[in-house]
Amino acid sequence: MTTEIRLLGPAEIRDLAELLGIQPTKKLGQNFVIDANTVRRIVRIAGLEVGGSPSTTVVEVGPGLGSLTLGLLETGARVVAVEIDKRLAAQLPVTVAAAAPDLPDAALTVVTADALTITSLDPEPTVLVANLPYNVSVPVLLHFLETFPGLTSGLVMVQAEVGQRLAAPPGSKVYGSPSVKAAWYGDFRLAGNVSRQVFWPVPNVDSVLVAFTRHDPPGTEDERLATFALVDAAFQQRRKMLRQALSVALGSSAEASERISNAGLAPTSRGEELTVADFLAIARSA
Fold it and tell me: What does the DSSP assignment read for 189-245?
């Protein structure tokens, strides 16, 4: 079922903020999308269509004043919105009811919580679509991928340099810990740029859209933890050879060299050259 929904524009966003006494804060990474065309573009790139599958449940992190939430609901999908700000969380159902009075109550569930503490959601989400707060975008994304295996795909808006890291291949200058960890869960790609002018307030950084499609994890949960520990160690000292960077994590430089060699890799290589499968191979080489 779909319903006619009036999306929010700049005037409505500012009026809502004034009504709630909201001053967008850098601490919470609040930059509200004020352009309806951008909202519909995000929804479209996320693979959601008006009249799409009613079994689709979208989780949105940081819905703010509801501009993207309304665009998601317009497709007929169920939306679970996770909002840390109690004022915004309380207002969201009111805003949705005013914009789409015929929408069934079950279409929207609002959870007032810190996204990093969420361990379960009802209904279980299948798609993640969010304008993620810039200061916690990677931790939130990885937490949701770890916590909700039913997430099959998603689209997130993040700071440009963060998005480039998430989608970077091995050997790239911006390839790092987020790149490897994201690759454990799925295939990530840059899906478009977003103008600063579609936000209020206008941020002082550029934004990009990053899309992902989940694939089966390459190893067990214990192996993931061991692999991520090696990834962290490698990129904390990314200029050092692996045998040095992993020496503490693996006991000694000699032990590290042996483990790396047993995995079929050169101890003189560096973390930025390795795929997630390579790191997993080292973790398994004990």
Answer: EEEEEE-GGGEESPPSS-EEEEEEEE---SS-HHHHHHHHHHHHHHHHTTTS-HHHH
